[in-house]
Amino acid sequence: MLKVLDQVRKYIAIALLGLMAIVVVSATLEVAYEIAVNIFEPPGFFIGVQDLFGVFGLFLMVLIGLELMTSIQMYLDHNSIHAELMLLVAITAITRKIVILDAKNIDPMIMFGIGAIIIALALGYYLVRRSSAEKREMSTD
Q1: Cβ(64)–Cβ(96) under 8 Å?
Q2: Low-confidence residues of the chain, pLDDT below 50?
Q3: Cβ atoms 76, 17 nearer than 8 A
Q4: DSSP category for residue 44
Q5: Is there a contact between 92 and 68 (Cβ–Cβ < 8 Å)?
Q6: pLDDT on residue 141
Q7: 113-126 pLDDT, tens digit each
Q8: Range of 46's domain?
Q9: Closest CA to 9 of 76, 81, 82, 78
Q10: What is the structure's pLDDT at 1?
Q11: CA-to-CA separations, 96 to 27, 64, 104, 122, in angstroms, rounded
């Protein structure tokens, strides 16, 4: 029974990987389209600040998709979810949120909340990296 569940889990992960690949390709085409439209739109070869924020947001979404694809691939290869990679995905996602935020019209408490999330993610990433380094040192001794 457990073997069947492992196979089902594997096929679901493969399906998710395929679907994520479709989404990432589509998002990449969307980034290319947005850049082309903004460059060839009058006055030409100039992307406005607002449009630039939109392009950066889309670009970071593609990077998040690629990182999620990497995490699914690592799950298939090692049959485990890597905390370090998941923290990097979360850091990229919060970075995207910061890039697309309209700082003029946002509640200060939201900014404090985002700051707390950044600190928590950075601390978590540091602790996971330190733990991994200690494990590697112990295994080489």
Answers
A1: yes
A2: none
A3: yes
A4: -
A5: no
A6: 66
A7: 999 999 999 999 99
A8: 2-140
A9: 76
A10: 84
A11: 15, 9, 17, 15
